Amino acid sequence: MSxxxxxxAPDGAAADRWEVLLATPADVGDFGLHQDVEVAAATFRxxxxxxxxxxxxxxxxxxxxxxxxQARAGLVGAPLVWSGFVLVGTAAAAxxxxxxxxxxxxxxxxxxxxxxxxAVLISLSVGVQEFAPPPxxxxxxxxxxxxxxxxxxxxxxxxxxxxxxxxxxxxxxxxAVEHDVAGTSLGAVEFAxxxxxxxxxxxxxxxxxxxxxxIATVTAATPNGAALDEAALLAGSIAHTVRLRSADAxxxxxxxxxxxxxxRTLPDGVTVLGRSPHAPGSxxxxxxxxxxxxxxxxxxxxxxxxxGRARVTDLGSTNGTxxxxxxxxxxxxxxxxxxxxxxxxxxxxxxxVIRIVSAR
Length: 360
Prior knowledge:
Strand content: 35-45%
Strand order of the largest sheet: 3-4-10-9-6-5
Number of strands: 22
Structural class: alpha+beta
Low-confidence stretches: 1-6, 8-13, 90-117
Radius of gyration: 22 Å
Largest sheet: 6 strands, antiparallel
Helix content: 10-25%
Mean pLDDT: 80
Number of helices: 6
C-alpha cells in the first residue's frame, strides 16, 4: 500500500489526551462526515464514474451509492481519528467471483449484499479509546488480557489472533456483524418493514499503547465476503503505520524546527512557499519564502510551526509536496490536508528540501 498522507489528533476531548499519526492508502476516498450527506454522495458518484467509467458506473451506481450511504451512516458521530473508503474497481482486483445479482425489488430492498462485482466498497476507520494495562500483580500481559476480553465480547464465531507491528503489540479480530435496516431509508433507498438485516464482515486490529494508556483500533469493513482478504490487507497496512502518544508528552519530545536549504531556520508561524507565493484565500500568513525552481508552483505549500510542532499543507501544486520520513518512507501530501512532520523528516518541493530537526 502506498501512503498519501498522515493525519494527527482526533477531534473532541480525546485531542487533549492523545496524538495519533498514521499513513492512509493513496487511493482512499472521503466519506465527507463533516459535509451534508447529499454533498458527500455526489462526490462519491463522481469518484465511481472515474473508477469504473460512466457507462459501468451508471449500471452499478444505485447499489454502489446505497452501500456508501449505509457505511457512512454507521460512522457519523463515532469517535474516530480518521475514516475513508477504498473502491476496488474490478472483480479480479478484489478476488471476487462475479455472482448473478438479482434485480432490486419493487419495495426498494437492495439486490444482493455487495456493491457489485465491479465496485467493491471497503470502509476504513481508526478510533482511539482509553486502556488501563493490567497491574504488575496480574500474571498476564496486556496483549493476552485484551485477546481474552475480545473473545468473551464477540463470542466463539470471531477469529482472534495476536499480532505485532514493529514494537507495537495488538490483537486482530475478524467477525460478522449485522445492522437492522427494516423500515428505514438511506437517500433514495427505502427499506421495507420486513427487510432482512444488512451483513458486514469486519477486520479490527486493536493496537496497544500502554505508555499512553490507550488502544488505537483500525477497522476495515466490507459487505462482500470475497473481499475479506483485501480488507485485511488494508487494515494491516494502516496498522503498521500507526503511532500514538500522550498529548502532554508531545511538547518536550516532538519540539522541532525547520531548516531551509541555505541554513536559515524558520521562526514559529505560518510560512507560504512557492515560486511567487501569496497568501491563499483568507489564510493569514506570517512570511513568504520564494523558491526559485520552475518545477515549484507559484503558491505551492504552507508550513505551520507552533508549540514545537510542524505541519505542511500542499496547496494544490502541480508537482505535489512530498515528505521523506526519517525511516525512508515517502509520503505524498494530499492537497488541502495538513501533514504532520517530525524530527528527521524532509519536506520536498521538487528539488527544494526543508529539513525538520529537533529543537533540543
